[in-house]
Design brief:
Distance between the termini: 66 Å
Radius of gyration: 21 Å
Number of helices: 8
Structural class: mainly alpha
Shape: flat
Largest sheet: none
């Protein structure tokens, strides 16, 4: 039986970590763009737009990410369309991320003091102008800590994509374990790599939260 050194195991896991980081980045950036669109609909003056955005957000928040991955991967297959695992993983994670970011950011918009809205009205600004010039700049400041914190959840969420065959860090851990028969060593390294990725982001989010809490809004 072939012998695998610790370096062999670590090298294979590090190669797979690239895909975890890439999928996380695509999911977070894509989710941010879609989430911003959902936010605009969610806080729109049009009731129909608000209801539509709310329905979309509640669907993705109220169903397991695992089920969403299955739908993205196997759903189109029912119609004879072959969906690559990386595409299904990316689409599912982008939409899942967008739903949560939209609600995080909506809470930040609502956290802006009501007096800021009243000040905008007193200046005869339209709703869109109030949002662009007064509310959103302040909401952005409030949103930085929770957004940074949620990025950790996105990274950990990528582990579920292994169920549809996407080879990221956790899937690579399973493959390497099957080849080396060293589950403790392999999964110990997998856990360590996730920790190395997520811990700095968690600490950054906590630092930003303290920093923003000390600074007045508006």
């Amino acid at each position: 039986m072939m012998q695998f050194t610790l370096w062999d195991i670590a090298r294979n896991l590090l190669l797979a970590t690239r895909w975890t980081l890439l999928l996380s980045l695509v999911s977070f950036l894509g989710g941010g763009v879609v989430g911003l669109a959902l936010l605009m609909l969610r806080i729109s003056a049009l009731k129909a737009a608000r209801l539509m955005a709310r329905a979309i957000i509640e669907f993705f928040q109220g169903t397991p990410l695992l089920m969403q991955l299955f739908i993205a991967f196997f759903g189109l297959g029912l119609f004879g369309i072959d969906v690559p695992a990386w595409l299904a993983a990316g689409v599912a994670l982008i939409l899942w991320t967008a739903a949560f970011l939209a609600e995080i950011w909506r809470g930040c918009v609502e956290a802006v003091p009501k007096g800021q809205w009243e000040a905008g009205k007193s200046l005869a600004l339209t709703y869109a102008q109030q949002m662009r010039l007064i509310i959103l700049p302040q909401a952005l400041k409030i949103a930085i800590p929770p957004t940074a914190g949620f990025s950790v959840q996105v990274i950990k969420g990528t582990a579920l994509t292994s169920i549809i065959g996407f080879v990221e860090l956790s899937k690579a851990g399973t493959i390497v374990t099957n080849a080396t028969y060293q589950p403790f060593t392999v999964y110990g390294l997998v856990a360590l790599l996730y920790f190395v990725i997520c811990y700095p982001l968690s600490r950054t989010a906590k630092y930003l939260e303290r920093r923003m809490a000390a600074a007045p809004v508006g």
